[in-house]
Amino acid sequence: MNLQVIAIILFILMYVVMIVKTEWRLYAIWGVAVLFVLFGILQRNPLYWLSVINWNVIMMIGGTMVIVYYFIESKMPNRLAEIILEKCPTVMWVIILMSLFAGAVSAFIDNVATVLMIAPVGLAICKKLKISPVPMLLAIAVSSNLQGAATLVGDTTSIMLGAYANMNFMQFFFMHGKPGIFFAVELGALLTVPVMLFLFHDLNQPVEAEEKTKVEGIFPTIALCGVVVCLIIASFIPNTPSTINGIICVVIALLCMAVDFKMKKMPENIRKAILSIDFETLCILTGLFLVIQGITDVGIIDMVANGIAKVGGKNIFLLYTIIVWGSVLFSAFVDNIPYVATMLPIITGISQLLGMEPYLLYFGLLSGATLGGNITPIGASANITAVGMLKQNGYTVKFSDFMKIGLPFTLVAVMAGYLFIWFTWH
Asked: Which domain holds residue 200?
């Protein structure tokens, strides 16, 4: 039995365990990672393991969790929750407004950071209304993933495409006189509103804000806004380190700790801030990075990418269709970063053979690979983060629970983008 077959079997078993026993996710992922090393699927070199972990994502999540801790302690999420409640007649409209707000923010900063910033507001709202936060946080997560492909800075895959195709920030909006992928994503986001109206139509409880929370300190809110501004500025600076976004989040987190200590002289707050980091979620992501690198190293991702290209042949519409929907299916189960990195040069080669501009296929790849992560709770880092936050608050999310929201979101948004890109760029 060759390494590819062993890797595929272990990978499938890992997903079966995670679907059947959600609480075993961490053990399933790390068990497979260890087996990958023992079988030689993943190199037996600790320095290599450290190199394949996406430290940028890990630092972003850890740093933002600390900032969010101070943000929650300042009671600003409660005040924002009251403002939102004042504008919405029912719980359904609260969820819709929160998800659209999350999507708008996520177009300009990382999806995980968006979830970490906005989910506390959602949790505060649900606590006030005495309802389960599961629908709201899942809607926030999938909306964040949906909008990640809208701009150059919204998602790691967008940054990868921008660097590979030498595209700047404005070319995601307009390029060669045509509307860019931004408009395809926004059309998909707009069409998810009827989906949410259907999914949450029974959440028709009236809402109202009965009290006015007093905010205790404005600095954590400034820090969160500072994260957004710094991440956007960093995207325009050439030759920055690959971990620049993570460094920004960690530095601002340390700044929050320093300001809080200077103002309150309470060292126990620093301990609480560090303990607020969801280390289980970080461990799950770290293990997934190793597992995905293992199936990449033995050529499984290359095999899938080349299979997509071969089936498409010279029929551009068929090729485009396979790339979009194949990317949706593939990224529902694995991190889309190694997949997109593999597909970009393949798409370039196919485009050259067919004598066509590659942007139709580039945008199809990006929309499919980014939105496909919404189908499962482990298809994107933002989903893992949202599910982890719910678990911290005593709510377990099953695969089926997530897919009831993620699947219709994905199908509607991808179909809208798929048709828009085809008719605009063909």
From this structure: 3-425
Tokens representing 241 are 């380190």
Q: Which pair of tokens denotes residue 13?
A: 């078993």
Instruction: Return d(Cα 234, Cα 240) in angstroms, integer.
Output: 8
Model pTM score:
0.74
The pLDDT score that the predictor gives to residue 242 is 78
In this predicted structure, what is the pLDDT of residue 210?
67
Residues 316 and 338: beta-carbon distance below 8 Å: no
Q: Are 149 and 157 in contact (CB under 8 A)?
A: yes
Q: Which of 77, 83, 386, 103 has its CA nearest to residue 221? A: 77
Q: Which residues, 6 or more positions from 365, have their beta carbon under 8 angstroms from its beta carbon?
A: 161, 323, 324, 327, 340, 343, 344, 347
Stretches where the chain sits below pLDDT 50 are: none
CA torsion, ordered 305, 311, 312, 314, to nearest 10 deg = 120
Least Cα distance to 85 among 208, 200, 203, 206 occurs for 208
Question: How many domains are contained in the chain?
Answer: 1
E runs forming strands in 228-278: none
Q: Which amino acid is at 91?
A: V
Question: What phi and psi, each to the nearest 5 degrees, are found at residue 153?
Answer: -105, 5
